[in-house]
């Protein structure tokens, strides 16, 4: 029998559950059904079964976008967390008022929208880098967004610049939560700054890695705005990420059912990777 307390709990929880059903579970089930049809956005059409899913695994453009997204995610996640943790250690030093200023400056890129951010860096790579190449004669600054290799690193630089300030704040909160007595005990024992970081601070902020890795992983895989504004997937779809591939399939080619099958497979991949990541980092937390 439900008590008054449990009735109040479910009553307060009901609006959130209804909202979650409306924006997540119901669209997911509808999308799952449409992925089994030749839906073109207007009419559902013929039921195809798993034909769309079989076709996806033969689609070289989609497979290449998955590979590119995976490489981009691995490189970006490593760089973001290394840079963000370094910045967090820097601004948690005794810098006085400068600490607040540095935190604000480092966080500001995260406040810029993805499209605007892409156009800012497009200007930097196309105009500023070209001017540097003309002045210095270094050819490596030319055509940064016109080759697959430099286009890849252009996206990485943009994403790291945007995300590292946000991830830095998470690391700061965990670094500030370390008891001062532990740091003082390490100093009394003669630990150097490097030893204090790797032997004391790093093990104690392991729970932060569970959060930051999940956030950077999900953000990297679903990135679309920056990809569209910076390279638009070019040249020749060599920098096209999976989110853009699915969007183009749905709204440019009007193959909604097929695009939905791609999206379902992409969702499954992200869920599996996220579960593995969380389980591994949780295990590392307990070991630390």
UniProtKB/TrEMBL annotation:
It is a multi-pass membrane protein. The chain crosses the membrane at residues 12-34, 72-92, 104-124, 152-172, 202-221, 263-280. GO terms for biological process: transmembrane transport. InterPro entries: ABC_transporter_permease (IPR051393), MetI-like (IPR000515), MetI-like_sf (IPR035906). Pfam families: BPD_transp_1. It is found in: Cell membrane. SUPFAM superfamilies: MetI-like. Its main location: membrane. Residues 66-277 form the ABC transmembrane type-1 domain. CDD domains: TM_PBP2. GO terms for cellular component: plasma membrane. Belongs to the binding-protein-dependent transport system permease family. This is ABC transporter permease. It comes from Vagococcus elongatus.
